[in-house]
Amino acid sequence: MQWRKPEPKKSYDVIIVGGGGHGLATAWYLASVHGLTNIAVVEKGWLGGGNVGRNTTIVRSNYLLPQNIRFYEKSMQLWRTLSHDLNYNIMFSPRGVLNLAHTPGQMDLYAERGNAMRLLGGDAELLDRDQVARLNPGLDVSGNARFPVVGGLLQPSAGSARHDAVAWGFARAADQLGVDLLENCEVTGFLRESDKVVGVETTRGEIRTEKTAVAVAGSTSRVMRLAGIERLPIESHVLQAFVSEALKPVIANVVTFGGGHLYASQSDKGGLVFGGALDGYNSYAQRGNLPVVEEVMSEFLAMYPKFARLRMLRSWGGVTDMSMDGSPIITTGPLPGMYLNAGWCYGGFKATPASGWCFAHTIANDKPHDINAPFTLDRFKQGRQIDEKGVGPTPGYH
Amino acid sequence: MIIDCPWCGKRDVREFTYQGDGNIKRPAISDVNVDEFNAYVYDRENPAGDHLELWQHSGGCRSHLLVSRNTLTHQIASCETVGPWADKSGRAGK
To answer: What CATH number was assigned to the domain covering residues A93-158+235-323?
Structure first.
């Protein structure tokens, strides 16, 4: 057994709601960095059974806005030593993430983005068409492609990691430091003393605490409603992902299509793992519709015509907590005694270590770290939106 | 997902554009309450279950539609025209 199955205690110093990647990472950083070990993680189902097991496992920090670059670079830094730090092989594979450019204008934008990344200490290389072709045999870089490739932006230190192992690694390491991981323990309400949250009601009884931290991704609105928070700058949307039958090594890095929205890589087992855009409407259904499937497949074939006869093994949908500006929320509040980690849109996996690290700091010190200070909930009212794509308050478009 | 447009009949979801929560009301332009405007622009109920939402039949008659849809099952309970033609009848028999 990788972790104990303890009975809930009457009270803890900190209760984390949500036993996914971010909740488990938060628990481990609270215990290992801040010395807080009297902690419980309460999880409705089993550990790592939510979005940490539903993503396409991509790890990167190729952002444009400085707030995002700083935050995701922190995550990259933590990813590099995470297997060692957790004593658990999370199979971090810095194989590079390549964004394809299909127009000269797109190359200009990538040059701007690459420069922004390098100015803040990240790594980025602008590639011409021949360099892209050398990195990716099989990619259609001919002039006959539907959207001919003119070049790309490579982040060499980016890549992928084994998603389940990240959850299990954080869980086992947190458990070894004394954190109680309470599975099959659904939060059904919050204990209140006037405004202040003083614990949770669960299917395994009442548990009291001074600090209740919520990290429940796509279920954020549902869980926060139990605390009387009726409205948040979040919509839950469904995002689909796909895995093909296994092939011999054929895609060396993570490739993204610039003529639409598609990202693809190859797992160690050989399957091609890829996904595209959101279905685009509010959904908690964990399954999407066929038009998006068709769109994703046609984009993939526009890049790799040779995969036309490849068979799909699996597809699934995850519920993502799309925020109004496309950026996450890691904050104290919104009620006294409460802390909120949400709004991960469909980029939560790569953020897992930095999200846990920043959330742990915020919980331990009752104020955000400099790195997550821009990501508070009140930024919307204060006009400090972090809108990487510049599409405004339309969650489905981020 | 099939949406039953009051004007065109049952059509595939790909003909429609999602326009978000249909419950939110824009405050009067004379209203200077910043909190209300902030809530209008950013805050959403985001329910798991029945959701009133706006769609446009952008690949069809271009009507704006108020749709009641369950976000857990994607089942659509009702679909009505909104805007200037809201009180006009759609197809015969509708």
So the answer is: 3.30.9.10
CA distance B18 to chain A (A): 6
| Cβ-nearest to B42 among A219, A282, A393 | A393
Give the closest of A221, A380, A394 to B46, CB-based: A221
For domain A11-56+164-233+325-397, the CATH superfamily is FAD/NAD(P)-binding domain (3.50.50.60)
ipTM score for this prediction: 0.93
Give the CATH number, domain containing residue B18: 3.30.2270.10
Backbone phi and psi for residue A75, each to the nearest 5 degrees, phi listed first: -65, -45
- CB spacing of B42 vs A280 below 8 angstroms: no
Q: Tell me the pLDDT tens digit for each residue of A276-301.
A: 999 999 999 999 999 999 999 999 99
Which pLDDT does position A285 carry in this prediction?
A: 95
B44 located within any domain: yes
- Could A231 and B43 be called an inter-chain contact, meaning their C-beta atoms sit closer than 8 Å? yes
Q: How many domains does chain B have?
A: 1
Q: Specify the pairing of strand A39-42 against strand A180-182.
A: parallel
| Neighbour count for residue A294 (Cβ, 10 Å) | 11
Q: Which of residues 314-373 of A touch B (CB under 8 A)?
A: 324
Are A64 and A388 in contact, with CB atoms under 8 Å apart? yes
Would residue B94 count as lying in a domain?
A: no
For tokens 């595939």, what's the residue? B12
Across the interface, whether the CB atoms of B44 and A231 are under 8 A apart is answered: yes
- What's the one-letter identity of residue A241? A
For residue B61, the enclosing domain spans 2-25+34-81
